[in-house]
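Q: What structure does this chain adopt?
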Amino acid sequence: MITKINAFDEFGYILWYYAPLSYYHHINGDEIHTKSKIGSSTVFYFSDNHIEENKHFDPPILSKILYPHEHYFSCYNFNGPKFINDKWVPPPYKTYYKNEKYVFDKPILTINNKNTMEWWKHPVNYFNSNILEKIILTFKNDYQIIYIRPPDKGDLYKFQKDKEQNSVNIGDKEVLSRHPEVIDIESLLEDTDKSYNEVQFMVLANSNHHISPAGDSVVPSYFGGDVFMYNCPDCNSKNRGVWKTDSWLKKLSGANIFGFNSYEELLNECIKRWLP
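A:
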C-alpha cells in the first residue's frame, strides 16, 4: 500500500503531525511517498520517496485535515491534540542522528534562538543579547555550548523560511564574537555539505541539555534530555499550555519539559539542574 503525505505547513506542525503520521505508516509496512519543504529530507529520512519543493501554506492545511474533529490550535493545549492518540508515532530522531562527528571534551549544551519577527513585530519569544551572554558565561566552563539559529542566508544550507518571516538584528553575533569558545552552527555548516536541518539534528542528538524559545522548542523536544523553554509573559502565546512544564511535548521523545515566562527563572533552574 502506498501512502502519500504532503507537508507544507509551518515547521512545528510538520513535526507535530505530518512526521509522526508518516512514521506510523512506515513502521506498519506501508510504502511512504512524501513531499515537503526545502531541507525536509532530514525530517522524512525514512520515506521511500521524498520530494522537496519550495512551498508554504499559511494558514496551515492542517486545519482542513483535522476538520470537523478538532482545530489545529489544539496543538497548543497542555495535553495535546486528539490526533496524537491514533496513527501517531514520532520518528526516533535522537537515535537515528546520534553521531561521532560532533563529540567534544565537554557535554554539549544547545541554545536555540530566533531572529524573525513575530506577529509583525520584533521577536518576543527569543533570547536577547543580555540573557544570551548570561547563559554563556554561566555554562561555558562546564559545557560545550553550540548556538543554533537559522542562518541569514538560508538558501546556502537548504533552509526554507516561512513566508513573511523577516529577520531583525538581535545582537547575538556580537555576543558570540566575545566568546569564541561557543560554537555557532554556521561555522559547522561552512565545514560540511549537509543541510541546516541535518546538522541541527546531529548536534541535538548528541546533547541532553537544551535551551530554546517557545515555538522553536518543538525541535529539541524530539531529542530527549532536558528542554528548558522561554515563553514571553505578555504576548499572543503566553497562555498556550504546550509551552508549560510537563506539557505533551514530552511525548515526542520522553524529554523533560520545563517552561518559563522569565529569563531569570529559566537560568536559575538550569543552574540547579545542570551545575554541581
